[in-house]
Amino acid sequence: MRNFVFYSGLCALALFLGACDAFLPAAIPSEETLDGALEGLDQSQRRMHIEGDAAFNDQLFTAETGLGPCFVASSCGACHAGDGKGHPFTTLTRYSHSDGAGNQFLGAPQLQNRAIPGFAPEALPSGAPHSSFTPPAVTGLGFIELVSDADILAMADPDDADGDGISGVPNWNTIPSFITPVPNAISQNGKYIGRFGKKASTHNLFQQTVTAYNQDMGITSTFLPTNPINYAAGTHPVPSGGPVVTDEDVNAVVFYLQTLKAPLQRSAASVEKGKLLFSQIGCEKCHRETLKTGFSPIAPLSQKEIHPYTDLLLHDMGPELDDGYTEGSATNPEWRTPPLWGLGLSENSQGGRLFLMHDGRAHSLEAAILLHGGEGDKSRSEFKKLSDGDKQALLDFLRSL
Asked: What are phi and psi of 332, to 5 degrees?
């Protein structure tokens, strides 16, 4: 009798659990979401990815745990919801160290517009050339980091030798002393190629992470142990009590960013016409579909063909996008070609509305295309000539990325 009751109980439990499954939401298909780890990580790599995920998305800093005293955000995930793009509430203000007249501006390159109690937020120095930067999506960055300098230089055409009106140049920049250049890095006059950031001023993900902790949150580390200068408070950095974030957390976040999956295209077969038009009107000359990665000890990243739709180069985008702001060797109207993979999912992390271009000023894909001046002007003109049906096909292709 006891056995009968026991097995009856098991059956009832199984039926109950099966009924619960019917009420659980279906898993979101991998191609419909930006976050998620690379497939093929080994057990120890998955564990480190999870640790980095917790540091990136769950670690919320407060005044008691080292936030600020001046800052922009209190966590990494605050600017990259779901590992996607930011929106106007998380947009950063970047400003130049000096202007064309030689005037110097304290606190550059980033405005810390918030402060903990008892401190004043930073004010933008009068006359400082500045720009707004909408936080980018962070998926697929491990692949981007592994595109070789040689391949980036091979795509550059600084003198427009082929006469297509598109030059494309790398951003040569001085890297901090705590950064080890990427493998097979190419240097020029002591400077290295950047590939991250709106103007490609950042060399690798380690530099990006350490700098973001310091500039975005006022979080010190052994690599940047001093709080940013607060222009509102005077010429001196706010004293630091020592490193706040551990080396282990920094490395875990870097690994997390390196091992996020690449965005996956959706409905590829149904948008072939739009993809063909994208190439025909010249968009693919800058938004290169296919790149390749070099060797990595992380097997799922190593020697892979990827489709990020970028050349990682700077292009002169004309007066419409000239904010008067420079970084490294990038001039005012020059911007890095942003990867387009994940573009169709941008609304998911931007509150259901698009905020495109470097500062979020474009609220639709078509508006973003129409802001392409300078080296993008020819493609913009060709887009305008398309029939309504062809325009829609091209836009559908972009939404599939």
From this structure: -50, -50
Residue closest to 190 by CA, chosen among 178, 173, 171, 205: 173
Instruction: Give dist(CA 211, CA 221) in Å, integer.
Output: 10
What CA–CA distances, in Å, run from 377 to 288, 320, 323, 374?
17, 11, 18, 5
Per-residue model confidence (pLDDT) at position 241: 64
Q: Tokens at residue 191, please?
A: 């400077």
Give dist(CA 148, CA 170) in Å, integer. 12
The pLDDT tens digits for 123-136 are 888 899 999 999 99
- How far, in Å, CA of 152 to CA of 141, rounded? 15
Residue indicated by tokens 């905020």 = 355
The encoded tokens of residue 107 equal 């606190």
CA 10 to chain CA mean position, Å = 50
Question: What is d(CA 360, CA 313) in angstroms, rounded to the nearest whole number?
Answer: 20
Beta bridge partners of 193: 172
For residues 97 and 165, what is the distance between their CA atoms, to the nearest angstrom? 31
160 CB neighbour count, 10 Å cutoff: 12
The ranges of the chain with pLDDT < 70 are 1-27, 231-241
CA 400 to chain centre: 19
CA-CA distance, 204 to 197, in Å (whole number)? Answer: 10
For Cα atoms 58, 63, 68, give the angle at the middle one, nearest 5 degrees: 90
Neighbours of 294 (CB within 10 A): 18
Those residues whose C-beta lies under 8 Å from the C-beta of residue 120, and which sit 6 or more positions away, are 70, 230, 232, 233
For 35-63, the pLDDT digits (tens) are: 899 999 999 999 999 999 999 999 999 99
Q: Is 371 helix (H, G, I), strand (E, B) or coil?
A: coil
Adjacent-strand bridge partners of 194: 171
Q: What is the 3-state secondary structure (H, E, C) of 120-176?
A: CCCCCCCCCCEEEECCCCCCCHHHHHCCCHHHHHHHCCCCCCCCCCCCCECEEECCC
The whole-model pTM stands at 0.90
Distance CA 253, CA 212 (A): 11
**Per-residue model confidence (pLDDT) at position 108:** 86
Strand pairing class (191-194; 187-188): antiparallel
What distances in angstroms separate CA 398 from CA 287, 348, 354, one per listed residue? 11, 15, 13
Contacts of 357 (CB under 8 A, 6+ apart): 134, 321, 368, 371
